[in-house]
Design a protein that fits this description.
Length: 293
């Protein structure tokens, strides 16, 4: 089977299932596993200029969505040449990848009209369900079962390790300017790691908040996890922003418990590496915790 993956999480799932040799093309944002994706044709491109500050990215995204314009463009000619049997896309977030409607329209024009698999995981169980969906679609359901079992065992080990630990108040900042509270699987990740998300809602979309709301929530730990950013990118962006009035009224600010994480790898993408993200969070929230076996 010839698979065209239009989003990074799907690429990661296909590779985690041991089926990387089926990939014939990936999105412009696919970067993992690097040895697999480096030479594959890129099937999408961004309509947003590169290297904009967070506030300008937010303004451009908002304006394009209000006009009904896509944030990503498809490389139709490349897709036609590759003749994929399967297109993997998503319906979860208009900001994260090519729109589902655009992929459906394109598939009717491609040779053989390839099948479409669309992913929309609202939470961690949804991510596991996507693993099963892709495994079933490519004819290897047993690999999906095996991978899901491995991931669930790792989560169970973390859950057991933090069961008797105090649960610090945590705020995950999913966008820095303007501030957004995290949604979907991120609050669940924090809960599994032994924390308590004070604003974000599990299974729901991320949403804009005010600094007054953040201050009122009194988080003891703040996680800088802007969607699509590495830890280094998040630190640079955060360092360039002025601190809001009342910043040092927040416990996390007074104690210095403000951490930039590699959201792009371990938080933003609904893929198997979110389990590693949960493990990293558990170590961060509970630094004295002995390593689980």
């Amino acid at each position: 089977m010839r698979i065209a993956s239009l989003l990074p999480s799907a690429t990661e799932i296909v590779c985690a299932l041991g089926l990387a040799d089926m990939l014939v093309g990936v999105s412009h944002e696919c970067d993992y596993p690097p040895d697999v994706v480096a030479e594959l044709p890129r099937l999408t491109r961004s309509a947003i200029p590169h290297n904009l500050p967070a506030a300008e990215v937010d303004a451009v995204v908002t304006a394009r969505l209000q006009r009904g314009e896509s944030l990503y463009l498809l490389e139709e000619q490349t897709l036609a040449q590759l003749q994929p049997d399967l297109l993997i896309t998503q319906e979860l977030c208009d900001v994260c990848a090519v729109s589902y409607s655009a992929v459906c329209a394109l598939s009717t024009r491609l040779p053989g009209q390839p099948r479409i698999v669309s992913l929309a995981p609202p939470n961690l169980n949804g991510i596991c369900a996507d693993v099963a969906t892709i495994a079933d679609a490519v004819g290897y359901p047993e690999r999906g079962v095996q991978l899901i079992t491995q991931l669930q065992r790792r989560l169970d080990r973390v859950r057991s390790a933090v069961a008797n630990c105090p649960r610090p108040r945590v705020f995950a900042l999913e966008w820095l300017d303007p501030p957004f509270a995290a949604g979907h699987w991120v609050p669940e990740m924090i809960a599994l790691a032994g924390g308590r998300e004070v604003l974000g809602q599990p299974g729901q979309r991320s949403f804009r908040v005010t600094w007054e709301q953040i201050i009122a929530a009194q988080p003891e730990i703040i996680l800088l996890i802007p969607c699509g950013y590495s830890a280094a990118m998040a630190r640079r962006e955060w360092a360039a922003l002025p601190r809001p009035p009342g910043w040092y009224d927040i416990p996390a600010a007074r104690t210095g418990h403000v951490y930039a994480l590699d959201a792009n790898s371990y938080c933003s993408r609904p893929a198997p590496r979110v389990v590693e993200g949960v493990e990293q969070l558990a170590r961060l929230l509970h630094p004295t915790l002995k390593e689980w076996q």
